[in-house]
Each structure stands twice: as C-alpha cells, then as structure tokens.
TrEMBL record:
Residues 33-108 form the DUF6468 domain. Pfam families: DUF6468 (PF20072). This is DUF6468 domain-containing protein. The chain crosses the membrane at residues 6-24. The lineage of its organism: Bacteria, Pseudomonadati, Pseudomonadota, Alphaproteobacteria, Acetobacterales. It comes from the Bacteria. InterPro entries: DUF6468. Keywords: Membrane, Transmembrane, Transmembrane helix.
Amino acid sequence: MTMLEWVLQLALLLMLGAAIPFALRLERALREIRADRSALEGSAQGLSEAARMAEAAMVRLRASAELAGRQVAERTATAEPLRDDLRYLVERAEALADRLEGLVRAGRPIANETPRPAEPVPLQSQAERDLLRAITLGARAAR
C-alpha cells in the first residue's frame, strides 16, 4: 500500500469515528420520536373519543331543549285563556269598585244627616253580592 492509500484510509477512519456520536444522537432522537408517536396516537384516539362523546351530549341537549320548548309552548297556550279571563274579571271588578265607591260617596252625606240602617242596594250579579259581602266583612274586621 502506498502512502496515499494509508492517508485516505486514515481520513476515512477519522470521519467514521466522528460520525459515530452523530449516529448515536440520531438513534436516540428517533427512539424519542417513536415514543412520542405512540403517545400522539393515544392522544388522537382520546380526542376522537371525546369528540364522539361531545356530539352525543349535543344531540341529547338539543332533544332536551326541543322538549322544553314544546312544554313552554303548551303551557303558554294553556295560560292565554286564563289571562284573558283574569283580565275580564279585573275589568269587571274595577267597574264594580267604581260603582261601589260612587254609592259610598253618595251615602256619606245621608249617613251624616240621619243615622239609620243602610238599605241593601239591589245588586245585579252574584259577583257583586260576593264583593259587597267581602267588603263589609273586611270593614268589620278592621274595627
């Protein structure tokens, strides 16, 4: 072997020696990547399972919201006639209260002049009679 061959082989040997630490570092990095890859795959499976569970929960939530909406609509439909009835009763009660107030005002000057028992005012309906009875019982209880 000639000197040139020896020099070339020595240079090749030095380069191979210098490449060994790089190869070891590369092998360790590849091992870590493989470990991270399995962890990533596990995370991806967990993420897909969480997405499926979230979709199922969203479907259940949507069904619950629709059911609640239907129940509210039914109750609202039931309450509207009651509201109308109450509005009618309040209007009648206000009219009766105004009428009763007028009768009381008209009766005060008479009561101040001559004390005598009050004559029952002829009432038109059972509601008016009940209202007058409730007012007189309330006035007696207040004394």
